[in-house]
Amino acid sequence: MGPKGLIAAAVADWLAGMDELGPVDWPPAPLRTERLVLRAPEARDRAAFVELLASPEVHTYLGGPRPRAEVERELPEVPERWPGSFVVALDGALIGQILLRRTPRDSRPAAAGKADLGYLFLPRAWGHGYAAEACAAALGWLDGAFPGEPVMLTTQSANVSSMRLAARLGFTEVERFEAWGAEQWLGVREV
Question: What is the mean pLDDT of the chain?
Fold first, then answer.
């Protein structure tokens, strides 16, 4: 396995090591924004999930994509439903995913035990403000489910678009650190 494959595997392990958010009824009623619906995954989303997880563009700053055949083989017919995983749908079709998890208590001190916001969007959805709209809705849901909960977000500092989005959502830089072969930016949003 090459360096990009090792980084992708490390990121997948990191996501798998995240903890559940806590006691919440899941899935909630779909969250509606002006243009989008955030909802639980459904069987009809499988092909778009494969595209999302195997996209080289989506995974530029996440260590590279997973091989399409591997994703096809491992992804269940109905993508997993777990608390904090929202499908972002435009006109009924998946364009992205919002992930809310809790960082492990043994992670970086600035992040330990906090809720963590992650997001992935298909390249055709980039540049339209969908990520900001969807993340704001998911953060609003989190604020209602866990009042006063600080939220963290980590992205590669080379991912300028993601850092701009984090600033728009109210995240402020706490630290930068080296991980997965690149400088990472860690921001926190206090409520």
Answer: 86
Give kind and range of the element (H or E) at residue 131.
helix 130-145
Q: What are phi and psi of 31, to 5 degrees?
A: -95, 130
> What is the phi-psi region of residue 172: left when phi exceeds 0, alpha when psi lies from -120 to 50, beta otherwise?
beta
Closest to 30 in 3D by CA, of 21, 45, 41: 41
Buried b (16+ CB within 10 A) or exposed e, 120-154: bbbeebeeeebbebbbebbbebbeebbeebebbbb
pTM of the model: 0.86
DSSP label at 124? G
Nearest-angstrom CA–CA distance, 11 and 110: 19
Contact between residue 134 and residue 125 where contact means Cβ atoms under 8 Å apart: no
| Secondary structure (3-state) at 22 | coil
The torsion of the CA quartet 92, 124, 45, 137, rounded to 10 degrees, works out to -60
